[in-house]
Amino acid sequence: MAFVNSSGESSETRVSFMKEIQLMMYGLGDCSKPLETTATLVETIVLDQLKRLMIQAEEIAEMRGEEIVGPEDILFLMKRNEPALKRLITYLGIKDEKAILNKALQELVDIDFEDQMMMEDEPSQQIQWKKTRKGYCLEFLKTIGIEEADLDMTEDIVKETRQIRANNKSMDMSSTAYQEFHKARCASFSSAQICSQKFLDWLRQGGIEQTLTTPVAEILVYLAKETVANIVDMALIIREEAPFQMTEPSPITPSEIQEIVRRCMYQQTLPFAGFSRDLPRTADKKIFTL
């Protein structure tokens, strides 16, 4: 049985993650005060990307004979991008470790989507997911020919580049500045400080109408931030290509984000297009996390 939102109704107040996205952008490589206009545009793109992802995942679920999207459908869509898949599996493994620690300490430190959703009954998928998110995913990946050893040996240049960028950025920071930078590095779409219901309401507001189980919601939280990270990565690459380099760091601008979208629309097609049916015309744009 699927999970449904505890309220059962959409919020009348518009939900926005603009402030959180500004923090994320700083932690991912933008200047210390990202532009609100840029963050608002990035928020729109992230919602659009998640909506496209769920359209494709829903098609995979239908092919499996399932009515509701599961983690398997998103993992299948990511199978050609092993570095991105490796980052997701690592993230879920960390969540497993946190859950074990929380249980041992008998206190709730990490966000738990079950607290924000009402269960009619608990399916076996949910029980297995609670036991080990990473194990659940690795078990499915084996069925499509991807072993954990394959992921371990995968070189992740994107992650290495982000780590080097963060280290260089923090090199000369004062202790106070580093605390702010660390806070920005930890910012996400759902945390102990941000109610998970806000994220679910935000997705509904963005037109994502599929039923979301806890496993899928947790993966979407990760992919939402990963989309922000990919956008920042591409914006910084565009700057490196510029004939004249900036002498002083300046915030990423909406025009740079628009250039990213233009390039992706021009160069990319729907990753799963060969098997898709009756998708809207707007679904032929690249999904950054796939």
Automatic annotation (TrEMBL):
Quote the cellular component terms of the Gene Ontology held in the record.
nucleus; SAGA complex
GO BP, one annotated term: transcription by RNA polymerase II
**Subcellular location per the Swiss-Prot or TrEMBL entry:** Nucleus
Organism domain of life: Eukaryota
Give the main localization category.
nucleus
Q: Name one GO molecular function term.
A: transcription coactivator activity
Q: Which UniProt keywords apply?
A: Activator, Nucleus, Transcription, Transcription regulation
Instruction: Show the InterPro entries listed in the entry.
Output: Histone-fold, TFIID_TAF13
Do you know which Gene3D superfamilies this protein is assigned to?
A: Histone, subunit A
What the entry lists under SUPFAM superfamilies is as follows: Histone-fold (SSF47113)
- Protein family membership: Belongs to the SPT3 family.
PANTHER family attached here? TRANSCRIPTION INITIATION FACTOR TFIID/SUPT3-RELATED (PTHR11380), TRANSCRIPTION INITIATION PROTEIN SPT3 HOMOLOG (PTHR11380:SF16)
Its recorded name reads: Transcription initiation protein SPT3 homolog
Which species is listed as the source? Nezara viridula
